[in-house]
Every structure is written in structure tokens, then in C-alpha cells.
Amino acid sequence: MAILDVVSTKAQRAFFGTVLFQAIVVIVMVAITFGKVEDNFDLTDTQYKTIPCYLALFILAELFEIFMAYDALRLRNVIQLVGILLFHAALLVMAALQVHETRSALVTNPGKNWTQDYLHGDGSGTVWSRVFPFLVVSPVVIGVTWPVMMWFVRELYYEFGWAIFHVVGANPAAKTMYQYYQVIICLLKFDFFAFVGVTMQLLIVVLATSTAEFGLTIAAIPIVLVLLIGCGLAVQREIKWLMTISLILMLAAESYFYKLVRFFEPSSRAQYATVRSTLTTFTIIAFLLLFSTFAIGLRCFADFDKGLLKSKLHEPTFQRRYSSSTHGTAGAKKEEGYGAGAPLGQRVSIE
């Protein structure tokens, strides 16, 4: 499906354009920051690994947000649009945390200017003073675009209002069940990002390739991906045995967050020093998302075999409205496009 078909209205173009604009600006700022730090520091040093991690996370986050925005517009999914707003707010928090963590990594001799300690000082002319403006741009741009996106989501809410009606009809119970289905599909997508974000930070910054924990973290990646995909298929096609397995594995996966304790244990505290704030935030969010997915999954499981399967398999995707029209055999005008009705039959006079 062509992107121009998806973003066909003014509100859709404005929303997607805002997401795309801020993504480009943020990625450019992060890349400049990375380049300036790389010119002066050895990024293979554990202390400075937070910088490539910062770059990788934001590129992943911005590409993910672009995909989610396109996907939400394609599916006419208001719930996913709201999820994007929450995700954008989380990006703002993450960008602000990265300013602090980058400073912690670079500045080990505060109060010194470039003549006293160019690399590790925080005064005028130092590496930190050159990097700081580019770090600040990211949270500013994300923060400014957030209310703009909220405004356009409000417009899209009214624009997409009939989408669910066309799928499930006017039945309030069916509408509620379908909304829960949309919520869990949306949560599964965010679960994927949160898990990848936590794993990426652990692999880049913390874990040595020779440790058993590194191997376990690598092994968890395909397992979690299979879990998320399996749960999505199960809830869409109402496969009970697969949904049962998915929910059990989801509950078991909560134990993965024992790592949260390790971030603050005296024996391993220093290992996580440069990424503790971001990693802790990511881990808590991932835990809450997975628990929410489990809870909503139980609700969706209870809605199996209640007549929603056909609606799930025929979700509302965009179809271009055609301005041209054709005439039916009975002389009635037949409109083509989304939501068009059937042609009128020939009237029979009783006079």
C-alpha cells in the first residue's frame, strides 16, 4: 500500500509529517553527538559505551515510532495513536535521562575548563560543552512536537470514528471486545520495542561476551519474539491452545526482570553505573507492559468464540475513495469506495 494512500487527508499528513520531522532531527542530533564524542574518546572503554548505546536506542525508537504511526494510520487505529503519544512522552523522559548519563560518562573532573581538562572537564571549551547543545535539542524537539501530535490525534479520532462501526457494527458488546483486541495487539508491538531496548543496552554496555549471562540474554531474544508473534496470532485467530501457552510463557517471562535487582546490588552496582537510570526506566516499563499484556490477554481469551473472529480477520484498512461513479443496471448511481452501499434496486410503482 502506497504511503500517499495511507496519509490521504490533511490531519493524517500533518501527524505523520510531525513524527517524521522530529525523528529526523533527533537522529541527526544524536549522530552529531556520537561523532564529537568518538573523535575524543575510545568508545570501547566501558565508561563511554553509553554513547553508542544512546545512538542505537534513539535510532531504534524513532524508526519504531515512524512504523507505528504508519501502521496506526493504515489500520485507522485510534488506540494505537494514543499509544504513540504515550511512547513519545517516554521518549522525552529517555532523552532527558541521556543528558544526565552522558555527562556522568564524560565529566569526571567538574569545574575545569578546556585549558585545564579538555576531555573530562565541564567548563567552557571542553568536549562536554561542545556536546551539550546537541543533547538538549532532542528533548526540546520531542517536547515541542508532543502537543502538536496530541492535537492531530484529536482530529484523527473524529476522522476514524466510523472505522470500528464498519467492522463490528453497532453492538456495544462487540465494540468493547474489539477495542480490547486492538489494545493487546498494540501492547504486543510496544512489548517488542521495550524488550529489544533492554536487551540492546545489556549487550552493548554491560555484558561481556564471555559470560554466561551474555549467552542467556542472546538466547532469550528468539524465545520472546516467538512468544509475541504467537500471542498475536492466537488472539487474532482465537487459537485457544496457543493463547494458553502464550499467557503461561508471558507470566514466566516476568522473572526475567530479576535483573532490576542487579542494577543496585553492591556486587554489580559499578557495572551498571553509566546506564543505570535509562536501563532501570526501560526495565520497569517493559515489566509493566508485559504485565498489562498478560492481563488484557486474559480478557481477550474470555472473549473467544463470541462472534468476533470475522471482524478480527477483516480489520479496517484504508481504501481510496473514488470520485468517479458508475450507474447500476437499474439506473441508480453506484458509488465506489470505502463504506459505499449497494446499488438501489428498480422502484416498482403501485399506482
TrEMBL record:
The record's region (Disordered) falls at: 320-351
Spell out where the chain crosses the membrane.
14-34, 54-73, 78-97, 131-153, 183-208, 214-234, 241-258, 278-302
User: What InterPro entries does the record point to?
Assistant: UPF0658_Golgi
Its Gene Ontology cellular component terms are: Golgi apparatus
> Is Membrane there in the keyword field?
yes
Tell me which UniProt keywords the record has, alphabetically.
Membrane, Transmembrane, Transmembrane helix
Q: What is this protein called?
A: Uncharacterized protein
